[in-house]
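New to this. Look over this protein:
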Amino acid sequence: MAHLSVERKKRIKIYLLALLVLCSLCVLTACNSNSDTINMANQKAVGEPSHFIAKFLIILQSGIGNFGWTVVVFTIILKLITTPFDFWQKHIMRKNAKIMERIKPQLDALAEKCGDDKQRYQQEQMAIYKREKYSTLGACLPTIITLVVFFVVFAGFRQMVSYQNALVYQSARNTYYSEHDAEYETAMRAELLAAGFSEADAEKVLSGETESFTSDQLVVINGCDARSEAKAKDLAQTAVLENYERPKFLWIWNIFAQDSWVSAVPDYQSFSGQSGMSGAKIEGVMITEYETVMGKVLGTGGYGKGGTWNGLLIFPLLSIGLNILSQFMMQKSQGKQPNAQAGQASAKMMQWIMPVMMGIFALLYSAAFTIYIFVSTLYSILFQLLFNMSAKLIDKSKEKKMGIRR
């Protein structure tokens, strides 16, 4: 790389770091690809998620209860764990800003001396950086760690959201079949007795012993069965509607769906993970069963005409706004960078990339994950403010000591 210009070397380093991030994410995704499914084939129990983040969320929820507050507590714990990396990044950025302030006159003089000889300017500029210990890539590693943590948490939330949806559906399914079976037997017995069958014949029909009946009697029995099934289905669906557990949080009807224009109760495609991006795949539930059990629940709840909105877009908008503010504060703390034109273009690009990316996640994924983004960004902003205040106090203290010495 000796023949490459300083600027090109810098670009190659950045590309290598980006490649490292992508490789890390691919490895992490591959590690969880085989377990990114919730199995509901067992009628008695839902298969628990295998991702360690999802398991930790289950433990937290068992103590807290509401999943929304579980996400808040989880986010604060995670941010406390990763705070040393944030502190390291901000320390390096502050150190760089002070070094840049000190060496700016040298760089201005160097620019005047070199004129149009950009290669010479870059070489001597990098020599000054090296001598003054100005780090051009020192703040990148914490950013990479932050991105890796973000996508690991995202994978855990995908499984957890599907697991919670499965638990809600399992409760509805249990309600449906317990109510259906009891109502069907009562209705079928009444229908058979009303049709002229004896109590003994009714018992035979209910136990499945229909071989002794004539073809005409079987026609009557089938009619009784159809009417009884319709009554039992209606009463069972009503019971599901009355006992449906709505996983609400604040203004959001269903925290496991997006805080947006989506339905508060997922249809089969969304529930099973065949469409949308909120959760992992759920196996073991047929579409006919799901639509039968959830028949009177689908389309209920929510805002707007017909209850079509699960949320009000509040968390996504807050998340985007806070990310813009966070990026603005970070760019401001870095101070004026060298190579102003290229630096400003890069800074503007980075200032919008993160808010756009966070906005996409906030809009397309579950409200639970959007709450994580919101709390995480809010924590980062508060940490940045406290760091800036502490840094100013330290600077004032140093200036006072230097004043006394003089």
